[in-house]
């Protein structure tokens, strides 16, 4: 599984927004370039059109993370993965 982002872009404003990140297969995420149309429809049904528009607007903003903030995210995600892996055994 891949971490599919419902809104394109490689900025911190979208890369780390967990509201728009969902599991996606390699085919959809890579070969179908994220399947944004289907992804957008899913999120609009789940939340609302206004919510999705607000997320799109937020994705246009520049968010600069410090090295410490990135390292904290790495630690947090690593711990969460360890918990998930522990639950699977």
Keywords:
89 residues; 5 helices; two-stranded antiparallel sheet; single chain; 2 strands; 61% helix; mainly alpha
Distance between the termini: 19 Å
Gross geometry: globular
Structural category is mainly alpha
Strand content: 5-15%
Question: What's the structural domain tally?
Answer: 1
The tally of helices reads 5
Query: What percentage of residues falls in helices of 4 or more residues?
Result: 55-70%
- Secondary-structure element pattern, one letter each: EHEHHHH
Please give the number of β-strands.
Answer: 2
Largest sheet: 2 strands, antiparallel
Unreliable spans: none
Structure, described:
- With 89 residues, the chain is mainly alpha-helical.
- The protein has one domain (2-88).
- It is built from 5 helices and 2 strands; from the N terminus they run βαβαααα.
- It has helices at residues 12-15, 26-31, 36-46, 49-59, 67-88, and strands spanning 2-5, 21-24.
- Strands 1-2 form a two-stranded antiparallel ribbon.
- Helix 3 (36-46) crosses helix 4 (49-59).
- It is globular, with a radius of gyration of 14 Å.
- The mean pLDDT is 85.
Short précis:
The protein is mainly alpha-helical and about 90 residues long. Helices cover about 60% and strands about 10% of the residues.
Itemize the secondary structure elements and their pairings.
Blueprint (H helix, E strand, L loop, with lengths): L1 E4 L6 H4 L5 E4 L1 H6 L4 H11 L2 H11 L7 H22 L1
Antiparallel strand pairs: 1-2
Helix pairs in contact: 3-4
């Amino acid at each position: 599984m891949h971490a599919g982002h419902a809104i394109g872009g490689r900025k911190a404003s979208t890369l780390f927004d967990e509201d728009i990140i969902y599991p996606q297969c390699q085919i959809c995420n890579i070969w179908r370039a994220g399947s944004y149309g289907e992804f957008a429809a899913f999120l609009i049904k789940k939340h609302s059109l206004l919510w999705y528009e607000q997320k799109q607007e937020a994705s246009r903003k520049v968010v600069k993370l410090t090295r410490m903030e990135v390292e904290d995210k790495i630690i947090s995600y690593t711990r969460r993965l360890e918990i998930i892996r522990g639950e699977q055994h």
